[in-house]
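Dear colleague,

As promised, here are the two records you asked about, laid out in our usual form so they can be pasted straight into your sheet.

NAME FIELD: protein one
SEQUENCE, THEN STRUCTURE:
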Amino acid sequence: MSKKNHDEPKEEVSEHLSEWQKRNKEYLEKKAQEEASKQKELEEEEVKEAEAEDSIEGGEIAEETEEDDSTYEEEETEYLEDESSESELETELSEKERKKLEKLQKKAEKEAAKVHISRIHIYRALPVLLGSGLIFLLSIYFLTPLATMKTIKFSGNQMVSQEELLKSSKIDEKDYTLTTFINGGNHIRNMKASSPWINNLEMAYQFPITFQVKVKEYGVLAYLHEGGQYYPILTNGEIISDPTAADSLPETHISIEFSDKKLIKEFALQIEKVPASVKKNIKTVQLTPSKVTPDLVTLTMHDGNKVLVPISHIAKKLPYYKGIQSQLEEGVPSVVDMEAGIFSYVEGAQNESSSSDEEKQKAEEESTGQPTEQAAEQVTESQEQESAEPQNSTENPGNTENR
């Protein structure tokens, strides 16, 4: 009965045992069975020995066997008690392991929750960390000599020196590279205002410390001839105050013989629209205003001809000179009048005809005392005929007004 009672809790405990504990239990059971079989074999041997001994000794053997039985039973009870204590220990160990596993799972969950929260905080603090790091790096940069190191290179400047441009830019050696880049627009305006030669400026930054300044200058259109000096007139009409030496003048240049700055500026704007082939042929420009045209100028050409044209009509009418030039007599100086329409005549012919007409008119006035209508008509007719003669002699198809 005691063995059955002991076997029942073993089955219940075995359900909660681990693999290692089950194997240990099986090993102990096998060991116990082996010991029991050995004990039985010893008992059988003792029984055989007892049968062989005399009756006197048989009583002593019986007593010994009883003692052995009692000791066997005691050993068996002790083994069962040890086995039950081991099972109890195993159950206690399994419960402890289960509790440890639960604690480990809870700890892992807590750690995972902590890591998730810490990442959120890092993401929230990231802009602050980046901003503070950038400020720290900038502060170190501004404290080093690298912050004020810069190289400024100029290209395209011929009439204005690099020293003048650098001085007028107001860029100081102590200025930071960053502030020079930020104030680039102001530096360009300062350089542009320093000289009338400068047409346009561009300043580009090249990492780490180089500034490339591209300069575009105005070209020289003509020279103002005043007081024996020649002053350059730029393509925008500005007059340079520094004169150019006569021996430094180009072989073919336009010499302006009047000093009205407003008319010079208008002339520069108009002449820029004229073809280069016509422009190169101009030698001098003289202001010869009439009662009707105050801005009338006389252009003396390198081929010996003269052109009368208003400054305000230069861009419109002067390009026609190229076609008229081929129809004029070579070696005979001619005048191309573009004041009202476009026609040409031999130089001096119109002055002679006008003077002869005036003399005839005066003679008629003296004889009659007043100019008659017939005389007036004759004067007008003679003027028309004389003006027509040079036109026919030049065979200029442009003798009538070109529209």
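NAME FIELD: protein two
SEQUENCE, THEN STRUCTURE:
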Amino acid sequence: MGDNNSGRVLVGFASLDGLAVDEHFGHAQYWQIYDFTDDAEFVETRKMPPVCGGSCSENFEPAYQLLKDCAALFVAKIGQPAAAYMLGKGLKVFEAAGSIDRLALAIKEQGLV
């Protein structure tokens, strides 16, 4: 489960508007971070340059460094190399779209993290 020493269960959502998962992993500039330790509570927005510009390289380390304390990531789409990289580092990755509130409810109900 990521590299989280705080005991919190953090989840990152790739979201441009902060309300819905609407970004491809490689193009995501904004990550909405929620704490699922007790309830789905917004923690912060993290910003980063997209790891892919036009075509994806295999340099996913900057994204990992930004998100390594998360147990799971939710993105609109993710390519196989990026997914394999993040999974290999211990982060769960899910392709999903829609409102963060709706996804948070599903995460809690289904015990995804």
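A couple of things worth noting about protein two: The helical segments are 61-67, 80-88, 100-110. Residues 3 and 42 are 19 Å apart (CA to CA).

Best,
R.
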